[in-house]
Design goal:
homodimer; 91 residues; Mth169, Chain: A
Chain lengths: 91, 91
């Protein structure tokens, strides 16, 4: 079962990498850029019988290793639904 | 207009960070982990009149700076639809 974890800095935390990228893009002529933040996407394939079972397991992984709860928030998404949504957005 | 960019290593490219995280998780007792790959998520807020216009602009940003086309693939997703999809997946 494939799920996707998005790990991002919490809202109050300064995103140094994002700020640097944003400044570089504005320098390249992207003056229409309002905000930019950088995080991690972790694609996980886990041996589970259902999407909810996979989510529970991946949530444990996030708590134990993948995310730092002091600095970061994470969200878990099923991969199939996200792909469908991405495809429909192209229409 | 908010869009989300996912930047991942191309399939053939060795993901050293992902391999290290995977080994660490297996060591923590997650023997049901089949595969894991790490990439970047970039949340971009761009001044555009529509989602397609924002996608075009962010695609230019990816080509010029955000992704390295030799090593990385990227996908652009609208943020609103993704949030709805993530919520519906929780039901």
């Amino acid at each position: 079962m494939k799920v996707r974890v998005l790990v991002r800095l919490r809202p109050g935390i300064m995103d140094v990498q994002g700020a640097a990228v944003q400044r570089a893009l504005v320098g390249l002529g992207f003056g229409d850029l309002r905000d930019l933040r950088v995080g991690k996407v972790i694609d996980v394939d886990v041996d589970a019988s259902s999407v909810p079972a996979a989510r529970v397991r991946v949530d444990e992984m996030c708590k134990k290793l993948l995310a730092n709860p002091v600095l970061e928030d994470y969200t878990i998404e099923p991969v199939e639904a996200s792909s469908l949504e991405a495809t429909s957005a192209l229409r």
